[in-house]
Amino acid sequence: MFLCRRQKIMQQKKSLPIASVEKRLVKEVRKNDVLIIVGETGSGKTTQIPQFLLDAGLCRDGRVIGITQPRRVAAVTVAKRVAEECGVELGQKVGYSVRFDDTTSGSTRIKYMTDGLLLREALLDPYLSKYSVIIVDEAHERTVHTDVLMGLLKKVQLARSSSVTDGQSGRFHKMPRHEKYAPLKLIIMSASLDARAFSEYFGGAKAVHIQGRQFPVDIFYTRIAETDYLDASLITIFQIHLEEGPGDILVFLTGQEEIESVERLINEKLPQLPQENQKLLIVPIFAALTSEQQMRVFAPAPSGFRKFLLDAGLCRDGRVIGITQPRRVAAVTVAKRVAEECGVELGQKVGYSVRFDDTTSGSTRIKYMTDGLLLREALLDPYLSKYSVIIVDEAHERTVHTDVLMGLLKKVQLARSSSVTDGQSGRFHKMPRHEKYAPLKLIIMSASLDARAFSEYFGGAKAVHIQGRQFPVDIFYTRIAETDYLDASLITIFQIHLEEGPGDILVFLTGQEEIESVERLINEKLPQLPQENQKLLIVPIFAALPSEQQMRVFAPAPSGFRKVILATNIAETSVTIPGIKYVIDPGFVKARSYDPGKGMESLIIVPTSKSQALQRSGRAGREGPGKCFRLYPEKEFDKLEDSTMPEIKRCNLSNVILQLKALGVDDILGFDFIEKPSRAAITKSLEELFLLGALTDECLLSDPVGHQMARLPLDPIYSKALILASEFNCLEEMLITVALLSVESIFYTPRDKLEEARTATKCFSSPEGDHITLINVYRACNDFLEKRSMEMGIAKTEKVFRKWCKENYINSRSLRHARDIHKQIKGHVEQMGLNLSSCGDDMLQFRRCLAASFFLNAAVKQPEGTYRALASGQVVQIHPSSVLFRKKPECVIFNELVQTNNKYVRNLTRVDYLWLTELAPQYYAMQN
User: Fold this and answer.
1) Rounded Cα distance, 763 and 804, in Å
2) Which of 60, 349, 460, 546 would staple 344 via disulfide (CB 3.0–4.6 Å)?
3) Dist. CA 772–CA 538, nearest whole Å
């Protein structure tokens, strides 16, 4: 059976379009320190290229090929696939490292990770010295992490290309003098990348185009715009399920909330179908899922990504081929697939490293990781010395980590290309002199990359196009715009289920709340269907889900069932979900928006770009002909932007700047970003960091606060809150608060049970505000688990715990994710030696600590009952979900601003106005 599986995997590898250009790609990587690869969907770039480089000897001296993904689900799944292809255990030669999950080990040579994780690594290893190659995948997404990573990688590559020991050195003027780093190879990948822009950014880097393997996809539009895209998605799911032939459905939503909402809706409506039409398997996938949950979403399936680089001898001397993914689920699943294809256990030759999960080992030669993880590695190893090749996959996504990684890899590669010891060296002028690093091969990959831009960025890097494999996809549009896209999604789900032939359904929603809402609605409506139509399996996937739950999307539905996957944009790229034949695309995504003038960042639901819409429809044509149901009129598609604005140009840059400062990049305005953020955004973020005490008057990292804040993988305001909490003797409470604020809402309120939900949550409510209410929930959860585990054991406790959460209208997924984050952050603060104290039930000091930390997010009540945010002057209202909604205290601090039809502040706590001038005089004295 194993031989049969191996033979099948090898046949699949040989059938990939990229297989025919293996020698050419390896040759280009050897010739070019920066390479931009525009590989069409289905070309196999994500799984195969790291394996090519590993076999080509680009992992000498124990270095690693790092591959970043914008999302952890991609990093996880791709790493698993590559480990499978390599025939090794995940965590050995191939591994991944994402938040909460790291499968890498000392033997890992191909490491998948999120771009954010690579950024964090750069804090500890500024030269990213363990990497010989860094691959930034899905670079087209242009998240803020991607863009920061681009700039950072550019700088690291420059430094490593010459290993300068004096001269103009940027941040690395205090690096030891006795060691030289080999040049870093940098690869930027995407299926829809603007290769020209990236090429220019990397000094004319070469761009290579690889033909993909994509079957035709028919595009359908609604005749008019949908007023409720979740409802339209739901309708389309059922429409596909009932009217279309076999094939899974992929639905793009904007976040975990939407995914869970649609999942509920499908499960509610599914029983209403005839018995034979109820075989739907709903699989959610979104970024907040832990790696374990993500892994349960995915069954091993031909993903066509990241493998060939292993066979070209590019991992000699123990170095590693690193492949970055923007998402950890991609890093994990691809690593597993590559390990399977290689015939090794994951963690041996192939592994992944993502947050909270590292399967790599000393024998790992292909390492999948998120781009953020590779950035973190650069803090400890500035030259990424263990990597011979770095492949940046999905470079088109352009997360903030990806863009920073690009800049870093560009510099690292330049430094390693000639191991310079003096001259114009960027950051590396005091690098040790006695060791010379081999050049770093860099590959940039994507299915939709603007190769020209990336080639120019990397100094004219060559672009190679690889043909993909895509079946035809019929596109359907609505006649008019949907007023409620969630309702439309629900209707479409049942329409597909009842009218279409076999095949799974993928529904894209905007977040966890929408996903869980649709999931509930499906489950409510499903029993209303005839018995034979109730076989629908609802599978949500979003970022907050644990990896094992995310992996469920890959598992085939039980016999006779149809799977409905409710996903955020986490399912757009990187990974192939088997069985998908129908895609429901409401046309929306949840995106960051930042106004530097007001200093306010918010998450808003916006229309997708054309590039995103094409990526979504393409999900239906990976294994055979499919159908895509766009829940908006065709004329609306024509109005969409061609591509998504890079995240780095629409987010608060405080966290990015803090990481760059920790990497020694003091001249932020002069940092070599692929696309520079606005001067106003950089200046505002520098001002915020100064007010938080992270920067000195000279704009250098303060000691110890700034350095402590940089060590924590959190937004700066959360990091400062934890540091202050140690002084206010309430660190235990602040750890709980930060963990819960880092996930989607832990409460859920079904539309038809609003009063019951409010009544259930009253027992946790605090008159002082939402932060203390969250602490009460967390403490009650801990008490319940401790008591039950002693009585009945862990397995039974988990089942009873889910029931307890349901009875109290608590989102067990979000709460479990928060517990994982709490464990990780607690480990960080313990290593930093902070005083792990508790204020018990006396919350006065805790509220004062909140005021001292969140002083930039303070608001005072106005005579007419609204509030004025003191920092921005905006008129805001208390969100209806707050326990303070009807109490109207005089002064509050809040966690976030939410913009819908009105501006709302959410997660509030009552504070004394005089505390602000007492505890934050650096700001309020200036204001007065």
Assistant:
1) 14
2) 349
3) 34
Is a pLDDT exceeding 60 seen at residue 420? no
Mean pLDDT of 170-183: 50
Domain 2-212+300-468 matches domain 214-289+470-636 at the CATH topology level: yes
Domain boundaries, the chain: 2-212+300-468, 214-289+470-636, 854-927
CATH of domain 214-289+470-636: 3.40.50.300
Of the candidate ranges 12-26, 276-290, 410-424, 852-866, the one whose mean pLDDT is the lowest:
410-424
Give the list of residues 6+ apart from residue 787 with CB closer than 8 angstroms, or none: none
N- to C-terminal Cα separation, the chain: 75
2-212+300-468: CATH topology is: Rossmann fold (3.40.50)
Answer for the pair 279, 563: CB distance below 8 angstroms, yes or no.
Answer: no
In a 13 Å sphere around the CA of 747, the CA atoms on its Cβ side amount to 24
Distance CA 502, CA 580 (A): 10
Distance from C-alpha of 414 to C-alpha of 182, rounded to nearest angstrom:
10
Residue 545 CB contacts under 8 Å (≥ 6 apart), including other chains: 256, 284, 285, 286, 288, 289, 290, 293, 294, 297, 813, 817
Residue given tokens 């809150």 in the structure block: 721
The CA distances from residue 134 to 80, 125, 130, 367, 727, in Å, are 18, 14, 10, 10, 40
- Range list of β-strands (E), 703-765: none
Over 50: is that where the pLDDT of 422 sits? no
Q: Token digits for 535?
A: 């076989």
Q: What would the two tokens of residue 499 be?
A: 């009218």
Tell the residue number behind the tokens 């002082």, with chain if given. Answer: 768
Q: What angle do CA 828, 141, 661 make, to 5 degrees?
A: 40
pLDDT band for 912, please (50, 70, 90 cuts): very high
CA distances from 36 to 136, 185, 448, 451, 464 (A): 10, 11, 12, 6, 7
Residue with tokens 């330049």: 414
Give Cβ neighbours of residue 918 (< 8 Å, ≥ 6 apart): none
Structural tokens at position 264: 């509920």
